[in-house]
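User: Second chain of the day. Same drill as before.
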Amino acid sequence: VTRSLMPKSPQIRIADPARRNFLRKSFAGMGWVVAGSALSRCTSGGTGAATTSNIANLGPLLDPDENGLRLPEGFTSRIVARSGQMVGDTGYVWHNAPDGAAVFTTDDGGYIYVSNSETVAGLGGGASALRFSADGSIVDAYRILEGTNINCAGGSTPWGTWLSCEETLIGQVYECDPLGNTQAVVRPEMGVFQHEAVAIDEANRHAYMTEDLPDGRFYRFAYETAGDLGSGELQVAEVAGAGPEGPVQWTRVPDPSADPVATRLQVESSTAFAGGEGIWFHDRVVYFSTKGDNRIWAYETDTAVLSIIYDAATSSTPILTGVDNLTVSPAGDILVAEDGGDMEIVAIAPDGSLRAIVQVAGQESSEITGPAFDPTLQRLYFSSQRGEDGDNPLGQSGITFEVSGPFFT
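Assistant: Same format as last time:
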């Protein structure tokens, strides 16, 4: 992707507020003023949600169901959106190449699933959203970001916004309104590089980021004001000693704009990671994946120590390969989506044991993206980015699924 493809600013298509009657909120530090009820990211389940994990107890995967998913006994699936097709009766056509995603809860008991589009601007790059009522019915679908390129993953913020990341050499982070009412804001201080994903440590005002390159870096953006990513310092990690595990030192990146030197090359002592992918913050630990060596990492924010918690090359149960997007449940289960591999979502339990919880059958050339739970923790959303036509790089056959069942009790 060349710089000429990049838009000067993102564009937002805002649907008629009277038609949608969307919930609105005020996003701190962004100058976004919208009146009404609150919106928040879904991190620990909604009111009354069960939070005792049943994932480690799930049985083996059964034969594919009518939607091509292999699920444990007691689980069902449905397709909620297909690329290039209208979502239900919303009038909105779902985007190509669905990728990173998150769920946001709303005051009416419903929720919003936000999904990136990993394609170029002219083919629909940016992000879209599906809105659900409390019972899981689809009530709307709409665009929240367009005019951007190769929006791969990203992350949710504690103040209820979606950070959409461009995976290009001149990629940036765009902060978006999941409701689609307010124009997205680019965050250049978070660095210009091949962004993959973001995770927020709100207590320490840190945004951790991965870079999807064979020699990518692990970054931290120390933002100055709570709820405001408009200013701060971009830092890069250096693992002490011979590595790859150990204490981490953070060093300021001199020029976040990467002009002319790439951010990953500006601090000579910084540590390279083999293709950074998904990232998530949970209980003072930052978890992230690197696809080049099929590893899952854990960075403890209290001790500033980095460790490997899964390595396919040394694991006694190496069922997880092609590590990519990930999410962490309230109970500490790490759900890792495979790009290739066996096209599974594999859960790493807090005790380190692994269990495949869903497999997409017959789509070996695709990848699984965007795993995210709804507020009840009984529904898991994700996509097969290229669907049955996995060789199509434009993702025009992408499928977004919902899997329902007793993930938690």
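DSSP finds one helix and 27 strands in the chain.

User: Great, on to the next one.
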